[in-house]
Input
Amino acid sequence: MKLAVLEGTDPELLAGLDRRVELVYFPKQGELPAAVLQAEFLVATRQFLTDYLARMPRLRVVQTISAGVDWIRPFVPPGVTLADGRGVHDVAVSEWVVGALLALVKLAPELAQARRERSWRTDLRLDELYEKRVLLLGYGSIGRAVEARLLPFGVSVVRVARRRRPGVHTISELGELLPNADAVVLLLPLTAETRRLVNRDFLAALPPGALLVNAGRGELVDQQALLEALEAGRIRAAIDVADPEPLPPEDPLWEAPGLWISPHRAAIVPLLRRRGYALVREQVRRYLEGRPLLNVVAGSY
Output
């Protein structure tokens, strides 16, 4: 079986693979080698040009390291199994979310501005997470990891997802939930249902001073509406994602008050590849043994 991975992938990450596996490498740019076009199992990264998927007749599995698959799912041919990287990013992203919330309640954007101005701002009033009501909008593996890290701070967590489950609200209930939320954390995948979910009406429903943290996708948010809410001082926010990416230097969000920006780095940590390729090795074992794969993306996404 040919397993296609990105060129330059550390051999140690793929150590111990079944001897029936032949590794082939796709380049970061340029034409795919013929051997890659014959691959049966692909570890897809953002460097892989999705147009090539239709030219891989033997392809049976596409495995991503990313948790979100909106960037590749439309290009996966019928009959090919797509599996995502659920679980790989739980620690890093959940820690980023907690760090973002702490940065906002401790006024990190304002303190950074005061430092640039060399102003000793004794008028600033820092807050705390204790007893805050945090709405987790998206309650998958990362959402559960965020909840586990937030609860010791004494917060009240409200779970929201696209589908109803015991103890989990649905998006249809946001009208009732938003007015009582001290903070909203976006962890949803990008779909037709969730695109621009955070719009003027959504932001207007939040109480004054609420916090918005986006660790999902930039397209979940209407950025013009976000900018207006920030400039009006109604909310404060932290984003790890934007629309487009990278955020252009001239974009007014760079100068928006009360905003903390991270350039889509929440999940990029030293252990990322080790965790990601542990999943890849397990998936390859399951595939060769004829066992069900983990994290299969099927049906409505």
